[in-house]
């Protein structure tokens, strides 16, 4: 064999090995990310992994999990990856042995608590819940959670229900964990005429249209609404915000593990975190700039709450909330 022939053979072997390790095939994702945002995210991912065809099912976190649990019962879970707002669900699935540990996940630069210590799920962004208000309502600008139970807010508050929204489960669990707020705060909200709707989208619609003056909402929706011309502003309350990280996890039953790992890798990479900024989210990774005019992750005042604790109380949270505001 000549030197030229040897080099050609080695080059062909390298190309073959690279192709063998490249992610490919179909990746199935169950997610609570809105349809258009998910389609845009997939397009960005495919610039890095063009060989992966991503199919996804999208609904609210509760409906996504109900579908997945039904598939577990039938012995035929479909998704490779779960990508939802609610870390409490990830804790429950981890406890049930449904998540695949991914020890090699690229977590450098991510803050403590942003991912599971056993590396079964990983936060992808920071989504605080605060207050949106209608600037044309004639009502005063809120500064604290307490403003929503004041006489000015009588019959003027709307919020997402934890019966449908994963972010709302975290938010209610966080608020009720604060000694100065607790369930007493929600009881006062109910007495003040506050109402619940299915999700954050319904909150923005009601406030932007002037049906309600105030709403509890995830920040990016309020900022996106304002950018599109809605008469709304967003407030990070003085007591602090609750926070979801929209974690991603690979299921133990995943059929395309290589593509699933590639998807997780991209979400946690600098490029993936920068893309979160493009979509209007605050990235979790240190050194990645967030959206203009928004606080950095380190600047946010986050009310303390444990996803594990909230997960253990999620059924009670939903029942108590339903007793106050209906289903």
UniProtKB/TrEMBL annotation:
Signal peptide: 1-22
Pfam families noted in UniProt: SBP_bac_11 (PF13531)
Keyword annotations: Signal
Record SUPFAM superfamilies: Periplasmic binding protein-like II (SSF53850)
Listed InterPro entries: Ferric-bd (IPR026045)
Superkingdom of origin: Bacteria
The keyword Signal belongs to this UniProt entry's keyword annotation: yes
Protein name: ABC transporter substrate-binding protein
Organism: Dongia sedimenti
Species lineage: Bacteria, Pseudomonadati, Pseudomonadota, Alphaproteobacteria, Rhodospirillales
């Amino acid at each position: 064999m000549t030197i030229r022939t040897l080099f050609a053979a080695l080059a062909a072997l390298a190309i073959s090995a690279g192709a063998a390790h490249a992610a490919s095939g179909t990746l199935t994702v169950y997610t609570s990310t809105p349809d258009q945002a998910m389609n845009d995210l997939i397009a960005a991912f495919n610039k890095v992994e063009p060989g992966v065809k991503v199919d996804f099912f999208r609904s609210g976190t509760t409906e996504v999990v109900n579908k997945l649990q039904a598939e577990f019962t039938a012995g035929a879970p479909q998704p490779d990856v779960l990508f939802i707002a609610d870390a409490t669900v990830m804790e429950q699935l981890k406890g049930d042995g449904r998540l695949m540990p991914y020890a090699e996940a690229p977590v450098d630069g991510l803050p403590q608590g942003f991912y599971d210590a056993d590396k079964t799920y990983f936060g992808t962004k920071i989504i605080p819940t605060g207050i949106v208000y209608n600037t044309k309502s004639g009502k005063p600008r809120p500064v604290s959670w307490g403003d929503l139970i004041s006489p000015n807010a009588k019959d003027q508050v709307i919020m997402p229900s934890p019966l449908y929204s994963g972010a709302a489960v975290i938010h209610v669990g966080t608020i009720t964990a604060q000694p100065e707020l607790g369930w007493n705060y929600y009881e006062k909200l109910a007495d003040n005429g506050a109402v619940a709707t299915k999700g954050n989208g319904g909150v923005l619609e009601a406030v932007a249209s002037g049906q309600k003056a105030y709403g509890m909402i995830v920040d990016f929706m309020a900022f996106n609404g304002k950018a599109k011309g809605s008469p709304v502003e967003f407030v990070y309350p003085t007591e602090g915000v609750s926070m979801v990280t929209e974690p991603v996890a690979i299921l133990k039953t995943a059929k395309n593990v290589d593509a699933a790992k590639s998807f997780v890798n991209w979400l946690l990479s600098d490029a993936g975190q920068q893309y979160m900024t493009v979509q209007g989210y605050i990235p979790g990774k240190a050194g990645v700039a967030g959206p203009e005019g928004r606080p950095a992750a380190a600047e946010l005042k986050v009310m303390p709450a444990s996803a594990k604790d909230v997960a253990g109380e999620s059924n009670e949270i939903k029942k108590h909330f339903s007793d106050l505001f209906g289903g």
